[in-house]
# Entry
Amino acid sequence: MQSNQPFRGPPPNWLRADSFQQAVHLHQRGDLAEARRLYKFTLRQRPNHFDALHLLGVLEAQRGDPGRGEQLIRKAIRINPRSAEAYSNLGNILRDRKKFDDALENYERALEIRPEYVNALNNHGTVLIAMHRFEEALVSFERASSIDPQFTAALYNRGVALVHLKRLKDALNAFDGVLSLQPDSMDARTDRVAVLMELGRADEALAAYDEIIRTGGGSILTYFNKGVSLLKLGRPFEALENFERVLQTDPQHRGALTNSGNALLEAGRTEEAIARLESAATLDPDGPDTLNSLGVALMRLGHSEKALPCFDKVLASRPADADALTNLGMAFQRLGRHAEAVSAYERVLRERPTYKYARGRLLSAKMYACDWSDLNDMIEQVRTDAREYGLAADPFTLLASSPDEREQLIGARTFTSDRYPALPQPLLRDRPCTRKKIRVAYVSGEFRAHATSYLIAGLLEHHDSSRFEIFGVSTGRNDGSDMRRRLESAFGTFVDGSRHSDRALAEILDRWEIDIAVNLNGYFGVERTGVFALRPCPIQVNYLGFPGTMGADYIDYIIADEIVIPKERRDFYAEKVVYLPDSYQVNDSKRAISDTTPSRMEAGLPSEAFVFCCFNSNHKILPAMFDIWCRILRETGNSVLWLIEGDPAAAANLRREAVARQVAPDRLVFAPRVPLPDHLARHRLADLFLDTLPHNAHTTASDALWAGLPVLTCRGTTFAGRVAASLLRAVGLEDLIAESIHEYEALAITLARDRTLLGRMRRKLSDSQPALPLFDTARYARHIEAAYTKMWDLHCRGEKPQSFSVAPAA
# Structure
């Protein structure tokens, strides 16, 4: 009679002769403790029993003592060096101990003994995958499959190798092959769905996940992977539901905590995202994915300084992590530490030369830092890349680096296609054309003390409330400023959407039944182009913040004038062009200028010198323009150049560049940042504003003209390079628009030497300022309202958007 109780104590005599076979039987049944006792009993009787040493070594590794297992199998191999199985099992232990080179050596010894040993071939390949030697791994799996076409482990691992090699269609076929032999293989089903996602077959992938769940495979892994897929599809709320299912079962699932944080971040719930990511970081303080996401979330709330240690920790464990290096560079740039950003982006390019937008980010950081080492070559590389539909630079960087409208159009289209493609099923629903008032929503991330708001605040207050309903959607932070309060009061309806996802904001616009949505950012600042990609409104407009084309089919119009976009150049703009009279740029006639003007001594300026100034951002100052400025300084003797103080590295670099051009460094004076009324007042200390190319002064030019300071510009070859010319025409100072860079240089020298001529220009500005079209906000409001009315009339007649001109108001 056989007992159901496990055998205890030494085996009886009748069992001792067969103790090894009993150990093997128990081992196979999973009774490791009893199998271990019998293997040891066998070895006490026969210390050199090869099979007992070999299998006890396997068992010890299974029990969690791989070191002891390795010792036993090595002892067995010394007894029988021709056992392929022993070499293969030793390889398995070494692989699990991450001794990959030693593991490969033992698998290869096994294959020398048995060339058709499919288990050893398969395991050989898994080690090569761990070593990122994917091509060699694929050879091992294909050899195993050719020997045994029914061997599903090799078929599955072949698919894994193909995924790593980006041969996704072949990988899909491999996983399908596994499932034809083993339909219930959860690994193959799950990885097959992941491949469908990578192939862009999202609907099939999600249907496959649902089928796995429906048929009882709704494991933590399934819900987790489905959540990751939904997150990649930009569906954060649905993704969050799946991660929450995972966390209900396993509250400490680090992947679900991290990815639910990512979903919350994408959904605009940044504070919740940070809390979730901090929970994940508590479980794994050095987890690079969690820390990277936490750093991004902190930057989103404006805490770039706090984000830096997150990226530093990621890079301590993964020094070549291009995402973390890029985020580090972006954090430095937001802190104005552009020289440090340059170093971060240079590391990205060393590690990943083709990493998307890395070259453009490096170029941008170097431009802000006025670091001109290899700058011209880099600009040419970025421009070439734009022409060839590459992803080297974002459209905003191209504005300041490319003087070619065609390059800017191609670059914008490529960027839009990559980052913000139009959705196949937009949110847009029909709007009633019978309403008395047209509903216009202005969407901006800069509704705060910012240049865009300084320009547009007066327009919002001048809109005709009998014909228009004006809505505001803020996508940026509330800085608590007087300007923010003024803007909120100007809108009939206002929402702080900074914590909303793109879809949530688009749904708000749809729920409000907005007729015309105005994008005040384009690809500048806290931009949310993704809202417009969802097409929530019948008419969508690119206006004011981004002086160039957005290259997006879902942006219908761009607001311009005949100088910034000559009619013969409008083919280089994806939008239809609306031509306003006077100038495309709005200005606020209420902008206050401080009554107190500092002395030149207080501003650090020489009392008797001729003061050229340029208060443009440092990134607009390029070597070719600086060459001209230095020649002007050399030709005008007692003169200085007054610039805005940005990154301290930029000031040091510009002084060094001046010395290289035979100009004393103290002839460059840097103005610290001060409140806007004081900044406008100090313009009175300057004599002439010198503009830049290929990116002009925009708000800074209007600042100067509003303060009574003449601006000298050279008409450029792009929208961004023709803005100052537009502004000068609108104040009647066309004489200050040079048509060539040589004319610009000569005119600057002439004006510095002829104070009488320059004085007449200053008086013209100051005497006629109240009546100048550029500063007549009420007149401008009538013009843009006429534009909105025409857009809406065309839409209600069923006509497509078309370019048109607005007649000047009477």
